[in-house]
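Input record (one chain):
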Amino acid sequence: MTELLRERWPGCDVLLREAQVPDAVPWLRDGEIDIVLGSAPVDEPGIVSGPVLISEARMLAVPSGHPFARRESVTMEELGRTTLLQLPGSASTLNELLTLVGAGHGVFPVGAQTRRYYARPDVAYVPIDGAPPVRWGLLWRADGATARIRAFAQAAHDLLHGGT
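The corresponding structure, as predicted from the sequence alone:
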């Protein structure tokens, strides 16, 4: 991604910074970051949700010993009978939250890619039937929509969807 942007905008520096979900919008508002890949669309005044770049199935992170861990899937109705952890609230990072899940304190809905990036022996990931997908897109401040921000968004779209 950064290489494609540098090809299109020579001299443009891209600095990558990992943000926890609760930090992304405040960082945008405060000008700490210019653009972020986040859950989209976002309903925040002054924040623009670019096009959805990634859509993934919603899964439920459960303790590996939980009865759901042996299931092919769970239903939305079944979620209502479980202890759902929250981010932020139950923990300040996804890693902390998955530690709580693994310790049996509750369950948490995540995107399907989480099982690849956060594989843990104490947590199983089970598809949620009927759940809307998790959608990820680029977010930026409405007053910060510079030509470079728009170019970054276009480069990301092109890279993921085969454009040049």
